[in-house]
Amino acid sequence: MPARAVTLYRQEQTQHQSSKHVVHHSRKSSSQVVKKKQVQATEAMAEPAYTVPAFRERAPEGMQEYQRVAAHFGRDLVQLQQELHRMKVATQEQVKNIEITREVKGMMPLRKDIPAEVPKAPDFLVSLRSHTVWEKTPVKLFCTVSGQPNPIVKWYRNNVAIEPLSAPGKYKIENKYGVHGLIISRCAVTDSGVYSVVATNPHGKATSKATVCVRRPQGGGELSHLPGLVPLLSGIRPSKLEVTLLDSFGVTFGTEGEFVSLVANMVVVPDLPNLPPEAMWYRDDTLLMPSRWAEMSIGGGVAKLTLPHLNKDDEGLYTFRVWTKDGTTEHSAYLFVKDATPTVAGAPGAPMDVTASDVNADYVLVSWKPPNTTHEAPITGYFVDRRKSGSKDWVQCNDSPVKVCKLPVHGLTEGASYHFRVRAVNKDGISLPSRMSSGVTAAEVESDVEVIKIEGKYDIAIRQEDLQGVYVTIPGPPTNVHATEINKTYIVLSWTPPSPRGRAPVWYLIEKCVGDSHIWQRVNTAVQLRSPRYPVYDMEDKKSYRFRIITINKYGSSEPSEPTAPIQKVDPYGVPSAPGQVIASRNTKTSAFVQWDAPKHANNLMGYYVDASVIGSKTWFPCNHRPYKHTRFVVHGLVPGDTYVFRVQAVNAYGLSEESQESAPLFIDAALLGAVEYATPSAPYGISLLNCNGSSMTLAWKRPKHTGGSKIKSYYLDKREAESVEWKEVNPSPVVHRIFTVENLTGGVFYEFKVQAVNLAGVGLPSEPSKAFACEAWTMAEPGPAYDISFWEVRDSSILVQWRAPVYTGEGPITGYFVDMAKKGSSDFVTVNAEPVGHCYLRVTGLETGASYVFRVRAVNAKGVGKASDVSDPICAKALPGTKEIVCGVDQETGDIFLNFEACEASETSKFNWSKSYKEITESSRVSITSSGRHSKLTFVNPEKEDLGIYSVAVTDTDGVSSSYSVNEEELKKMLDLSYNIKHPIIPLKTELNYEILEKGHVRFWVQALKLSSSVNYRFVVNDKAITSAEGCKISHDVSTGIIQMTVEHFTKASEGTYTIQIHDGKAKSQSSLVLVGDAFKVALKEAEFQRKEHIRKQGPHFSEYLSFHVTDDCTVMLVCKLANVKKETTFTWFKEDEEITVDVPPNPMSGSCSLPIPMFSRKDQGIYKAVLGDDRGKDTSVYDISGKVFEDIINAIASIAGSSASELVLQCTPEGIRLQCYMTYYTEEMKTSWFHKESKISSSEKMRIGGTSEMAWMQICEPTDKEKGHYTIEIHDGTKSHSRTFDLSGQAYTDAYAEFQRLKAAAFAEKNRGRVLGGLPDVVTIMEKKSLSLTCTVWGDPSPEVTWFKNEQEIVSDDRYKITFEGGKFSSLTIKSVYVEDSGKYSINVRNKYGGEFVEITVSVYKQGEEIPEPKLGQMSKPVATPKPATPAPQPVKTPTPPTPTPSIKSPTPTPPPSVKSPTPTPAPKSPTPPRSMRSPTPPRSMRSPTPTKK
Question: Model-level pTM greater than 0.70?
Answer without folding.
Answer: no
